[in-house]
Write a structure and sequence with these properties.
Helix content: 25-40%
Catalytic activity: L-threonine + hydrogencarbonate + ATP = L-threonylcarbamoyladenylate + diphosphate + H2O
Bound molecules: threonylcarbamoyladenylate, magnesium ion
Keywords: ATP-binding, Cytoplasm, Nucleotide-binding, Nucleotidyltransferase, Transferase, tRNA processing
EC number: 2.7.7.87
Number of strands: 14
Number of domains: 2
Order of helices and strands: HEEHEHHEHEHEHEEEHEEHEHEHEH
Organism: Lentilactobacillus rapi DSM 19907 = JCM 15042
Strand order of the largest sheet: 7-1-2-6-3-5-4-8-9-10
CATH architecture of the largest domain: Alpha-Beta Complex
Subcellular location: Cytoplasm
Largest sheet: 10 strands, mixed
Number of helices: 12
Length: 335
Amino acid sequence: MNGNQLDTAAKIIQQGELVAFPTETVYGLGADATNESAVKKVYQAKGRPSDNPLIVTVSSVSMVETYVASFSDDAKKLIKQFWPGSLTMIFKLKPHALSKTVTGGLDTAAFRFPNNQLTLDLITKAGVPIVGPSANTSGKPSPTTAQHVYHDLNGKIAAILDDGPTTVGVESTVLDMSVDTPSILRPGAVTKEDIEAVIQRPVMDELHHVGMSQTPKAPGMKYKHYAPDAQVYIVDPDDNWQEVADWIGAHQQPVGVMAFNDVINSIDWPKNTDVISLGDDAKSAAHDLFAELRDFDNHKQYKIVFAQGLKPTGIAEAYMNRLNKSAGQMHFKQL
Ligand code: TXA
Ligand code: MG
């Protein structure tokens, strides 16, 4: 990426067109957050329901201060510790600070300061914050490479800034700071424990309180997400992988398996198995998950994929949150 390309991308943003941009989590779809018609194009390109508010992506804390009256002491501590980084925070807005199209009519907005220099330079050059939903077609796994973005949005957006594969692989943690007790609306690489260690008080985990039938606080959490064409079944930590292999052996069709290396190496897999490694730990599983789900769709026509389930602590909570959605809560045990 040279300076010229960055200048061009910044101009495209200023002209009200769409530019996909890299972050450390997943690729985002950028448009001038202060330009109503530009923001509308983002919903159209993604096929996103209009009541699902967008994240506002900034390159400085002062950009947030344009829209937010003041930060609590906790917010200041979290900004200091985690920005730039994978913690998105929801703040109460000054009246009429951002359009309804961005906020979905809420009096709050989610702000994100990503840890990617190219994108921070883009925002600074454009001189405006950019809305930044994940740059996928609504309902598909979030994109972790520029190629994924191209696959979903080619012909619908003006440019893609390519900075190689993202490092984290799942979207940022969304933390609601507009309420008395800060509350995690979406788990990500910055965990509940990480946040509590900084503010020295308990944080709520909205996911454990809200069933799918109620209205979740983050509107985006109510939609089916990350769903590949294949049916994914979660193999829980207490399941026996040999039984999975036996099931595959008893069925003629090709079946996908996404698992840790130690699992893969411990089993003599039937010939009709296609095994894909999630590496050795939860961090690499989170990193690989979306790319592998896409791979199953684009290059293989499997009807069934078995995926490694993990105990949901630390980054594994974010991994299991996404995996549960792609599996529609289906488990190997149910077969
Ligand atoms: O890592 C990320 O956060 C990526 C990268 C591109 O920055 N972006 C991303 O954006 O995942 P998106 O739009 O796909 O997810 C934002 C989530 C949605 O679930 C949305 O409903 C929620 O945040 N959200 C946004 N504004 C909100 C608000 N004011 N109150 C509650 N939830 C909000
Ligand atoms: Mg998304």
